[in-house]
Amino acid sequence: MSSECLSSVRAFGGHQHRFQHRSQVLDCDMIYSVYLPPQAAEQNVPVVYYLSGLTCTDENFVTKAGAQRAAAALGVAIVAPDTSPRGDGVPDDSEGSYDMGLGAGFYLNATEAPWSAHYYMYDYVVTELPQAVAEACPRVDTSRAAITGHSMGGHGALTIGLKNPDHYTSFSAFSPIVAPTQCPWGKKAFSHYLGADESSWADYDTCLLLGKATEQRPILIDQGTSDNFLEEQLKTHLIEEASEAAGYPIEVRMQEGYDHSYYFIASFIEDHLRFHAGYLHED
């Protein structure tokens, strides 16, 4: 479990670290990033996990979102893992497509070969990653955690949060895939990772999980109206319908003119961190 620090830079009074460790869950070496705010020099701080989208690594959010300034002001750590297992022997899509295999783990536990040898991103995020972070950065209080993400990572944040309300105070997402069982990205990935039996897919679909939730947590979703994936892949209206049907309140903000890029995330990341900090710092 021991993590090796690959790099560390000063940022807004805190430190941006990058670690590598051997994942037993994924059976490969994994890299994750941790921003420690200045408050961590003297006290334990809560954590927000950020899950990235298709094609990304741990570095996209760290270098593009500009989240460190707000995290430093709010006194929260940010942990950004990779989006899939990596390395020699880890299977990739045979056609080299961007929406399957490396960079496209979909934050689930695969049951179908060859994916089932490594693709357990759900267990990694929920269980192993917090253990690695707590060991590498003892000032990060992993018992006080929230979770957010973008696109595929928004799907991961919402489904992981809904299935583990005891782990996270609040959930949020940017441009999430809210109904993967009803869009091309999700259908392709789930058929490969989980098999042809679509009944097994429901366990990783936010809209379907809302109706099964036994505990409710605050949820914030931001979606750009000019996102070119909105109609075919993201289908934000479905989660608004599911929220009403399940009696599970969700704040969905349609942001006029914004697209799917990190410019969108950078524009609203402070809102999300403040949203989570309000619950993480509750006595």
Could you characterize the architecture of this molecule?
- With 283 residues, this protein is α/β, with parallel strands linked by helices.
- Helices cover 32% and strands 23% of the residues.
- The mean pLDDT is 97.
- It is globular.
- It has a single domain, classed as Alpha/Beta hydrolase fold, catalytic domain (Rossmann fold, 3-Layer(aba) Sandwich).
- The strands form two sheets. Strands 1-2-3-5-4-6 form a six-stranded mixed sheet, with helices on both faces. Strands 7-8-9 form a three-stranded parallel sheet.
- Strand 1 (4-11) and strand 2 form a beta hairpin.
Question: Can you tag this structure with a few keywords?
Answer:
9 helices; alpha/beta; 283 residues; Rossmann fold
Write a compact overview of the structure shown.
This protein has 283 residues and is an alpha/beta fold. Helices cover 32% and strands 23% of the residues.
Q: How do the strands of the widest beta sheet line up side by side?
A: 1-2-3-5-4-6
Query: What Rg do the Cα atoms give?
Result: 17 Å
Q: What's the architecture, going by CATH?
A: 3-Layer(aba) Sandwich
- Major sheet: 6 strands, mixed
Number of domains: 1
Helical fraction equals: 25-40%
Please, what is the CATH homologous superfamily? Alpha/Beta hydrolase fold, catalytic domain
* Molecular shape: globular
**CATH topology (fold) name:** Rossmann fold
The low-pLDDT segments are none
Give the amount of beta strand, in percent: 15-25%
Roughly what is the average pLDDT, rounded to an integer?
Answer: 97
- SSE pattern, N- to C-terminal: EEEEHHEHEHEHHEHHEH
Distance between the termini: 31 Å
Helix-and-strand structural type:
alpha/beta
Number of strands: 9
In DSSP terms (H or I, runs of 4 or more residues), the helix count works out at 9
User: In the CATH hierarchy, what is the class?
Assistant: Alpha Beta
